């Protein structure tokens, strides 16, 4: 192999793999899922052979039994029948594929996000299915210098293409193809408290070029920022956050994360009159059972990648911005950047976006 060919091969491994490493999940009973699948496959050049078509319920929340029979088992069977267990690195779900798995909450939860459970299909096929309660250490967490490949990391990286409607998802795909390494990383602390969350936000700011960072350590909430390529904050867990929308101008490829327990609870669009609730006890401020910010709002407003939680994740299991933002800045693709930063699988986390989206090296 020539030096040039070797460089191209190594760069491809580090900064993201080819389209044939993606398994695209379409839920046939959901028209929106089919529409998204067709658009993404066409524009990201996903081979039609890599589209796995399911006949699952279209409810956002399903039982554990339905997850096993309608999602995990058919996907595993699809991969085994083609001997693609190692070839596939990324799984992309779509609107209409169930979002949440029912179960008890807390630190010994059996509830989880569908996508976080699907990350373990690889290891489940190679051994005994993982046990409950949920919450299994992510073997890729923090491995910032490692190439993501099988069998080194016995998981799939699962992202979701979803939003309030097809226009939102089309925006994700279109912006991912235009992503470039430019713009500002906006990092908004919740005042000057000494919580681990603020510590990770400060570390994220220090790990990025100072001329690319907007860091606010005051009590105010940053809004109306322009040319934003990355954002991390406390979201509605900052008591000074009063509005759903920040008024940011997001660049193509922009990603976000926030320490919010239920921001991925639904992708049903709220009434335009709904705003963040002042408290959990005020029923007028609740939407789908929570007063908190919604990941879907960020997608609708123009981000290309986002994280969220379908149920309470606890702060320690939220994405670490001090890993996520530097990894993305240095050229990791969207899926790898997020999963490097997520400590646990079979948990509450979801990642929205095209897994292959990347800014490229700085």
Determine the mean pLDDT. 93
Query: How many β-strand stretches?
Result: 15
Overall geometry: globular
Termini gap: 27 Å
Question: pLDDT under 50 segments (min length 5)?
Answer: 1-16
Q: What is the count of helical runs?
A: 10
What Rg is obtained from the alpha carbons, in whole angstroms? 19 Å
Task: Give the count of structural domains.
Answer: 2
The percent of residues in helical segments reads: 25-40%
Most strands sheet = 6 strands, mixed
SSE sequence, one letter per element = HEHEEHEEEHHEEHEHEEEHEHHEE
Identify the notable features of this structure and list them briefly.
362 residues, alpha/beta, 2 domains, 6-stranded mixed beta sheet, 10 helices, 17% strand
Characterization of this structure:
- It is built from 10 helices and 15 strands.
- It is of the alpha/beta class and 362 residues long.
- A 6-stranded mixed β-sheet has the order 10-9-11-12-13-15, with helices on both faces.
- Helix 7 (196-206) links the parallel strand 9 (184-188) and strand 10 (213-216).
- Residues 1-16 have low confidence and may be disordered.
List the helices and strands and how they pair.
Layout (H helix, E strand, L loop, with lengths): L2 H13 L6 E6 L3 H14 L6 E4 L6 E2 L1 H19 L7 E5 L5 E2 L10 E2 H5 L2 H6 L9 E2 L19 E5 L4 H11 L7 E5 L7 H11 L6 E4 L11 E6 L16 E9 L36 H7 L3 E5 L11 H9 L4 H8 L2 E2 L3 E4 L10
Parallel strand pairs: 1-2, 1-4, 3-5, 4-8, 9-10, 9-11, 11-12, 12-13
Antiparallel strand pairs: 5-6, 7-14, 13-15
